[in-house]
Design brief:
alpha+beta, three-stranded antiparallel sheet, 3 strands, about 40% helix, globular, Helix-turn-helix domain-containing protein
C-alpha cells in the first residue's frame, strides 16, 4: 500500500485502520483540532508523533471526548 510517503506519517485511511475507527472520525478529529495533520505532496497525512499518544490509549472512542 505505501509507496512514496515516509514512515514518519500515515494517510487518513491508514490512521483510521490503526485506531480501529472510520475515516470520517479521523477527518472530524482533524477538523476539530484533536488530531494534528499536515499536507505532504498534496496529500493529508498524520505524523506518527501525533498518533503515538492515541495508540497508547487505543480503545473504543479513542478520538472522542
Amino acid at each position: 500500500m505505501r509507496t512514496s510517503l515516509s514512515a514518519s506519517a500515515h494517510t487518513i485511511r491508514e490512521t483510521a485502520w490503526l485506531l480501529g475507527v472510520d475515516r470520517s472520525e479521523v477527518c472530524r478529529a482533524i477538523r476539530l483540532g484533536k488530531l494534528h495533520a499536515e499536507r505532504r505532496r498534496g496529500q493529508t497525512v498524520i505524523p506518527v508523533s501525533a498518533l503515538l499518544p492515541l495508540l497508547a490509549n487505543a480503545g473504543p472512542g479513542v478520538l472522542r471526548d
